[in-house]
Amino acid sequence: MSDPTDRPLGPLGGEPDAAEAGATADRAEVMPAPTRTARPRAVTMPMLIGVALLAVAVAAAVWFDGKRTQRALRLEVAQRLVEIESSAQAGAKSQAQLATDLREAQAKVSLLEARLAESQAQQAALEALYRDLAPSRDEIAISEIEQVLVVASQQLQLAGNVSSALTALQLADTKLQRLDRPQFVPLRRALARDMDRLKAVPYVDVVGMSLKLDQALAAVDTLPLAMDERLPPPARDAAALPAEVPAWRRLLRDVWDDVRQLVRIESSDRPAAPLVPAAQQYYLRENLKLRLLTARIALLSRNDASFAADLTAVDGWIKQYFDTRARPVQMLQGTIKQLAATPLPGETPDLSRSLEALRVLRLGQDRAVQGKGAATLAPTR
């Protein structure tokens, strides 16, 4: 075993440091181990100084390297801090910009929602307007049937045209039959009842009777008065005288016949005709025309009593004031008698049942359309 005093000392005479111990260990590994009998070599001063200088150089190198590393770390940390600060500032600016963009986006969303609600309301209004302007097929059919029934009712009330009203009702029933809707059944039932009532009305040619009254009005101005009636002169019997009668006797006979024509005595089986002055003849004919006009109005209004009374008055005036032997007067009397003998249909039925059923159907359709409009506007509110 070696003596502890044989261990080399450090540069200051103390314990050797780690570097020197490492160097000594390396030299010990390189150098062959001395024999037990050989004595260790003495450590010289230059060697210690060299080792110390080497240790100082190594420590300085380590210190400078640490300084350089620390400076590099500081620069890197400062650079990182600057980058982080820049990033933070950029992030703050981005956050502020994002907040601004978010507020603008929220404002735009609110505006879009308001415009969307407004557009929905406008769309609902447009749909309602479209339903009003472009009705469905059923609504169009109901409108057409309503117009047909109104015209037919006017024809019955004003002109009493039963055939035209019956044709209009049949046309309306055909349209409803073509549509084949359950809600139209009450209307069709009312139409069928009114058609049966119109078919039961007897047919009267009101137009033809009105035309005959027009012809009678036109013939009034040409009727001869009874005061102007003259009997035809008796025919001369030229063959009464024989052929051998002398001419002077024939002349005397002709003169006598002419003298006899100066005074005529006529017998009549009728009372004397009233004398109508020339100034009153115009009023007589105008009053007769007025009677015929009132008879025509009574015919068109289906007033049977007034029609018969007017025709009776016209026939009485003709017999009293006009020449009943004249052909125009006889033709007018025949027309008046024919018109008086024609029975009028009496009271014409109305179309109140059909119009009432149509009114109820129209009211139901309007309520259904209003319900649909309220259901459409409910989500927008």
> Total strand count, please?
0
What sequence of helices (H) and strands (E) makes up the elements?
Answer: HHHHHHHHHHH
Rg on CA atoms, Å: 70 Å
The number of domains: 3
Biggest beta-sheet profile? none
Shape: rod-shaped
Beta-strand content estimate: under 5%
Distance between the termini: 109 Å
How many helices? The count is 11
Helix/strand-derived class?
mainly alpha
Low-confidence stretches: 1-38, 377-381
| Percent in helix | over 70%
Q: How confident overall, as mean pLDDT?
A: 77
List keywords for this structure.
381 residues, mainly alpha, disordered N terminus, 71% helix
Descriptive notes:
This protein has 381 residues and is mainly α. It has 3 domains: 11-31 and 43-126; 137-201 and 355-377, no CATH class; 202-229 and 274-347. 71% of the residues lie in helices and 0% in strands. The two termini are 109 Å apart. Mean pLDDT is 77; it is low at 1-38 and 377-381.
